[in-house]
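Reproducibility note. Readers wishing to regenerate the assembly model reported in the main text can use the exact inputs given here. Chain order matters: entities are listed in the order in which they were concatenated for prediction.
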Amino acid sequence: MEGQSPRVRDIGEFKLIDRIARIAGPPGRGALIGIGDDTALLEPSEGRLLLATCDVQVEGVHFLREVISPRQLGRRALAINLSDIASMGGIPRWAILSLVLPPDLPVSWVEEFYTGLREEGEQFEVPVVGGNLSRSPGPLVVDLTLLGEVEPELVVERRGASPGDLLIVTGELGLAGAGLLVLQDRRPSGDEGELVQAFLTPRPRVQEGRLIATSRLARAMIDLSDGLASDLHRLCQASGVGARIEAVRLPLPEAVRQTAQERGIDPLELALFGGEDYELLVAASPEAASSLVRLLADAGVPARVVGEVRPQNEGISLVFPDGTVRPLPPAGWDHFAAREDIPGGGGRRWQTGSSA
Amino acid sequence: MEGQSPRVRDIGEFKLIDRIARIAGPPGRGALIGIGDDTALLEPSEGRLLLATCDVQVEGVHFLREVISPRQLGRRALAINLSDIASMGGIPRWAILSLVLPPDLPVSWVEEFYTGLREEGEQFEVPVVGGNLSRSPGPLVVDLTLLGEVEPELVVERRGASPGDLLIVTGELGLAGAGLLVLQDRRPSGDEGELVQAFLTPRPRVQEGRLIATSRLARAMIDLSDGLASDLHRLCQASGVGARIEAVRLPLPEAVRQTAQERGIDPLELALFGGEDYELLVAASPEAASSLVRLLADAGVPARVVGEVRPQNEGISLVFPDGTVRPLPPAGWDHFAAREDIPGGGGRRWQTGSSA
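Running the prediction on these inputs yields the following structure tokens for the assembly.
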């Protein structure tokens, strides 16, 4: 198919924009002007605060075109940003997209990318309302900025966790990390399809984040993009606390254990450092935590307590299955460091300093 | 200096973020959370609509590191987005930035870039409230998303021009295009510094756009990023009209004439197709146009009538100095086409379709 499709350089920018606008569809839902003027014109909801986040994905750093389809990448580009809005307790609203495209990219690739983006957007009522196109002399780059809204009284920040709070994780951990291992082997079997999918097209916890926020039971929340260890460090740093995670409580599905063990890797590593799970990590008082776990279970979302918030001077530690306690390093990925081989990897947000 | 500065890969992402956050400073002005959580948390003004736009700049396509300093690029990245907010009549508020950095980039480059961004931001009270960092296996990429606000009754769209309206341009045309010619020669003389500066660090017409919007005298407005011809075509397409520009009325400064003539180029070409001037093109009824020109002159901004809006079936034409009338093509730049040699060039917005 790619061989028959014209290339981006063949049809020129204007026609490409026309094709994109046709796939993106009308902006709808609070967008008075989408693609079609100097800026998008949006109608924020009265009395709500605005949320803004962005995530850039670079070919060769965050994805490989041989591994992820354009449609999957479109879904993923939106999903990883949706997860950030979810972790603030917000409602996603509008996406703005910059695409930096190699001139020899098939036009069909761009169309498929937008199809994925629209599919994901339709699920969460998030239209693409504007953006920017450029030629790339190197890798394909996708940068998506997502705007959302939240009631001032419902915002859940990273800061706010107190010693004695319990730490809850939604869903399961390590699926995406295991999926990446499978992809690196380049021999995914049928059973491993779920893992690969978890890695390529994560399911952002938008409804869950909203449920947690409206319950007002959470003291702090963060999404798990870089791995539980890394993101726990961020939450603790922002809250000025320490934490203790219990390995036996981590929601490690059998498929993750098996994939790791087959490769001589400790499954715990995938749960703690694998990243890309896009689950939510929540701190809540013990009473609130039980209510939260029940509330989520009632909504069909598994969630469990995985540890406890501790005073800052105790640091961040892990209780191993045998009872030994050791400091838990943030580890996680650093895009400027050595791991050049990773076809996916959380575009790490800057949001590591303390808030205003 | 670059030789002594550590490289981006040497200090790792966390430290780089810390350095950036220190330069960026507190988010201030309506930003409850800036760099430091999963998303920025912003407080929109009551009763205003939201404006959102982005512009990506790619090394080797929009800039060359040998030609533009990091500080200039920081200013420019914000300025070209400010111009889009200006052309809607809006007030710029918050910037979100994605940086895709080659690992061997000196840390001092990133710091200087942020210094430029902060300098430009301080002029317009626009803080950087969030963003994203990634490693680049290829060119340096800067993608800035800018949010702004505007009262619903003051928005000036591209559509709205009517036959009989006059077309006004602020400032002068061709300076940036001439600056690019000078840079391509790699022999800027003292006198040409102003041209080069116009190209590298354009001055967005934020106050002017706001003045035009609050006057309520304009029917349509667009900023001149890709050249008068190209952007006039967009305004006319959105408004469903034609236009006639008079060459003798174009504000072509002497320095532009001289630079063009020295190189055997028609100065008109720079005014019409040069791009990057970031002036405003406004359509207004004849009475309103006189008032607007006076209003702008009183504010110290030269503005002049350069032509007239015509019925759509007359097309878009140019009256040459000798009185001949010819169709005016949009020309402008297309990033996927041949002009690989251009170190700067308007990251063309998608906003070419009709509005919702």
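We highlight two features of this model. Chain A touches chain B through 92 residues (CB under 8 Å). The CA atoms of residues 61 and 335 of chain A lie 8 Å apart.
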